[in-house]
Amino acid sequence: MHDSPTASGGASASLLRVRSLATLLIALVIAGVFSAPAATAHTKSISYSSWQLGDIGARVRVRVSLLELSRLGFVPGGRPDLERIAPYLAQRVRLLSGETPCSPLTEPRSLRAREGWTWWQWDVTCEASGDRAIESHVLLDVAPSHIHFARVHGEGGATRERVLNDAEPRWLLDAPRDSADAAGASGEGTSVVGYLVLGIEHILTGWDHLAFVLALLLLAGSLGEVARLVTGFTVAHSVTLALAVLGVLDPDPAPIEALIGFSIALVAAENAWLMAGRGPWIPGLTVLGVLVMMALAAAGTGSVSTLTLTGVALFTACHFGLLGRVERPERLRVAVAFAFGLIHGFGFAGILAELSLPQDRLLAALFGFNVGVEVGQLAVVALVFPLLRMLERPGLGRVHGWVTEGGSAAICALGVFWFVSRSLG
Q1: SS3 content of the chain, % helix, strand, coil (to 5)
Q2: What residue ranges do the domains of the chain occupy?
Q3: Measured between alpha carbons, how far is 48 from 277 in angstroms, rounded to an integer?
Q4: Which of 269, 307, 299 is nearest to 405 (CA)?
Q5: Helices 397-424 & 359-390, crossing angle to 10 degrees?
Q6: What are the phi and psi torsion angles at 381 (to 5°)?
Q7: Can you tell me the distance from the alpha carbon of 43 to that of 323, in angstroms, rounded to the nearest whole number?
Q8: Which of 35-44, 203-212, 360-369, 385-394 has the lowest mean pLDDT?
Q9: Torsions phi, psi of 65, nearest 5?
Q10: Residue 166: in which H helix or E strand, if any?
């Protein structure tokens, strides 16, 4: 005796609902695990310094976020411990003459800084002779991937900048112009190649951006679809990266970082929904989650405005509604990759925009950094997509299903974690 088509269809629908709920449950469990250390949700670790050079010394200004200093325990209870921060920065950001550190001429004093940052100024004098160099070891003991932007203003009015990191913590200011080190920089500062390397490092250590790209790849069915997804994302984030760095647009970074988290959660939830038969559970719970965040924002909690979250809720409802009506969802996924790419571009722009580069160096830095981001992104795609296609071979279908469903659940959990922690943090 065979099951009737109706009974078989009902069993299939029940199985899809179970898979949908199981995927959602996995996502929520993983989100709960990651929510415990919410205070550790950092973006790229960065600090800045500005140097006004004189004949025998310099005036230095150093800017570091309180979030970064909290790694060192210098922000107890959310209030900066100025007595500990001042000597730490003076010891870790130095001007050297030859191999001799220049001596402090004045004590570091705190300047007025925007919310979430601390800004310090002091003067140094150099008693020894020799080639001058700037050296930074800020936060490298607790954050080896930390980068420090040093910007130098000379007596002739020329401005140059350099990216310092754990591999290259020293900048020899008097190095010949035509010499270059491993970071692609000389005494004139960081070159296009140096910014290209920085872009590659930024995307390869930007776990949120990588999670978004991986979420897009999990359900990509062909190389052509991957090309369209990557192109849409690339064009969009290149546009907003340029607009932000050039100063045309200057969005608040806090809601941008939160919306990047939401973009990851939405694309991963969309994956689970498409695999689970397009039932009402995942869209409904996704919109409900945004409505909860709206209520919190209306009560004055969080960094994302109620109006913005209203738009996010409408976008989410309309997106799932359209996906439920089309036979080929990959076309809408390209549009979503483009839309969220605009938001990710503002996230990429944070490093260069904060540096406020002069016009004669800005375009080269922007070009090199953007190319580096694309190179790193394409390297990830070239590594991951062939592996996913291999899992589609006969006999591996079940493994492919586990990877796509489990991967989507894990990425959705990370997106939820980043969205909530960045919104409320």
Answers
A1: 60, 15, 25
A2: 5-42+202-424, 46-174
A3: 50
A4: 269
A5: 150
A6: -60, -45
A7: 32
A8: 35-44
A9: -75, 150
A10: none
Tell me which residue of 203, 251, 259 sits closest to 381, measured CA to CA. 203
In the chain the first and final C-alpha atoms are separated, in Å, by 60
Find out whether 63 and 49 touch, Cβ atoms under 8 Å.
yes
Question: Structure tokens of 84?
Answer: 């500990």
Residue given tokens 């493994």 in the structure block: 399
Rounded to an integer, what distance in angstroms lies between the CA atom of residue 182 and that of residue 377?
Answer: 22
Type of residue numbered 373: V
How many contiguous H segments (helices) and E segments (strands) does the chain have? 12, 13
The stretches of 36-119 forming alpha helices (DSSP H) are 66-69, 82-92
In sequence order, the 6+-apart residues with CB closer than 8 A to the CB of 329 are 274, 323
User: What six digits make up the tokens of 119?
Assistant: 């800004």
pLDDT tens digits, one per residue of 391-421: 877 777 677 788 888 888 899 999 999 999 8
Integer Cα distance of 74 and 217 in angstroms: 41
Helix, strand, or coil (residue 409): helix
Rounded to whole angstroms, how far apart are CA atoms 306 and 298?
6
Nearest to 164 by CA among 99, 93, 108, 101: 93
- The DSSP element (H or E) to which 388 belongs, if any, is helix 359-390
pTM of the predicted model as reported, rounded to 2 decimal places = 0.76
The number of beta carbons lying within 10 Å of the beta carbon of residue 317 is: 15
Dump the DSSP string for 131-156: -EEEEE-TTTTT-TT-EEEEEEE-TT
> What pairs with residue 64 in β-bridges?
47, 118
147 pLDDT tier (thresholds 50, 70, 90): confident
